Please model this.
Amino acid sequence: MNQKIKQSLRHFVQKHYGYDLSAIRTKVGDDFLDQKKLLGNILTPMIFDVGANIGQTTYKYKKLFQKAEIYGFEPFPEVFEKYSELFKRDKHVHAEPIALSKENGTADFYSNNLHYTNSLLPNNPEYTDGNERYDPIATLRVKTETLDSYCEKHKIERIHILKMDVQGGELLVLQGSKKMLGNGSIDMIFTEVEFLEMYKRQPLMQDIASFLTPYGFNLHKIYNTASENGAPVAGDALFVRAKI
Model:
């Protein structure tokens, strides 16, 4: 990874989020190493980073696969601008200011006090009231597109890793991916999952698993589980297509 990009990314996170990116956000753990192992001898995978934010996950994938083709989707203008700027010199990273969803068009996008809680779904006051990270700031209209439509338009025939961190919008992305899923054209799905409804109408872990089962996906492992009073709240799940 270009050292200038690394330094710029770290500075932005320190300024806006208050922590050291080098210590928290760019460490490549077992969740990413397992993906590399599962891909075997594929050295230049096609990766969709859906909910790319400022590039934390893109950065990790670039550390593992220097020449991977990565499409980063981030609809929030301020954050997209930073993501695009950070990777503008990398011809293998393609920044897209859109939200992948279940249909093409536009949708309301809910901006909160901290950007990483932004979502296509409104907050659920039952769980977010009193949590300043979720305090609403604004609602804006953003462009939406289905993954199927995007892949057809850009002649993308296979996605090796579909990563999603879209704060409750995971099922919307998958509903717009039925053609690629049905064709067996997505090998691995690495997604944030939640066990509490932090956003209204959001899918929970079991909903994601149930949707993917008919397409031949098995749950490989759950990582980075966060708990509260002994009960799981959220984590990252890796689903793998059985035939790979």
